[in-house]
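Record type: monomer structure entry
Structure origin: computed from sequence
Chain ID: A
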Amino acid sequence: MLAAMCYQSNQLIESENMILPKNFKLRHLIYAYAGVEEPEAEVFGFLAESKDEIVIAFRGTDSFKDNESDQDLYQVDYPFAENVGKTHRGFTCIYQSARNELMKELMKLSTDKRVLITGYSLGGALAVLSSFDIAVNTDFNHPFVYTFGSPRVADPEFAYRFDQRVKNSARIFNVHDIIPTLPAEAYPPPFTAKGLYYRHVNNNYPVSFQLNSIARNHYISCYFNTLSKLDPEFTSALCAKNPGFCPNIKICTPFKGDCIEKSN
């Protein structure tokens, strides 16, 4: 379900429309600033609510400005808790620009409900940053976090603090997906005076699909397709009850790479 929520968060920027499961209501669209030199506002996800659950979903990279932020890999002190390590500057700036409005809307909802925070690709990084913030700074202090194809987000100190504080998390990644290998674990001096060091948060859940394409090996649709095989009955019911909610999985077939010859 959460992989499909991530897919729908990407639909917001691609088609300006999305579909939620029938038992969920949209409560807030998450807007944030992406880019380095001249940041621009973009929609990055949503906050939705059902009778028992709250879902916060963040989309993946989808614009040139997003790519600028992805590559802004210098580190800053995590802004929302003291002495917990350093985080990727590009990801942190995006989340920081959305944080106040997101928190304001979240605080309107019942703390009796389970909070599920999810994100795909760049959105996985935002899910990590936001879930730690929510865990330490709100009464929703036990969020459930599921990321798909997330890059590394922070230094070893923050990763350690996250693992200690956010117990209910799963970092789902395709072993053939290049994005979870970025940023690199180390950029030693003289890249910066002291170097930069990155580490993934724990609770790893590897999956495997090799579609002979860097893009297809990373698509959220193909993560959904692989995970759906773990419980096809649930997936069939979810998709049947909610037309248009589930991703199109036709693209999740290996690319043969045959060249096309021009005929005379």
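Annotation 1: The chain has a mean pLDDT of 95.
Annotation 2: The CA atoms of residues 141 and 176 lie 33 Å apart.
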